[in-house]
């Protein structure tokens, strides 16, 4: 699914999905949980991101969030386990968006 010259930066298993950050886009992999036989792949290019934000895990929180809003109105929200370096993810995204 990668194009020539595209590199994977980070991959994560979120609470609901799998998310792959490349140097060109975000790829969301959604596996149907019941059977595991049906898989959806969605590609969101960084060039279409209007803004994004993070919410870090608090003392009693079990997860942190990344929210990305795209030019077509699509809003992606990813929930990561608290041990994931959400600030590091944010830093990597900034390199390709800004």
TrEMBL record:
Domain of life: Bacteria
Domain Bacterial Pleckstrin homology positions: 1-96
Gene source species: Blautia obeum
Identification of the protein by name: PH domain-containing protein
Entry-linked InterPro entries: PHb (IPR012544), PHb_sf (IPR037063)
């Amino acid at each position: 699914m990668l194009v020539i010259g595209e590199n994977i930066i980070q991959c994560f298993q979120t609470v609901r999905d799998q998310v792959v950050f490349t140097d060109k886009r975000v790829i969301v992999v959604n596996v149907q949980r019941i059977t595991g036989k049906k898989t959806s792949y969605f590609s969101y290019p960084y060039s279409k991101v209007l803004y994004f934000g993070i919410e870090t895990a608090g003392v009693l929180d079990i997860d942190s969030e990344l929210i990305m809003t795209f030019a077509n109105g699509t809003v992606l929200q990813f929930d990561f386990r608290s041990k994931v370096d959400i600030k590091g993810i944010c830093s990597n995204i900034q390199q390709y968006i800004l």
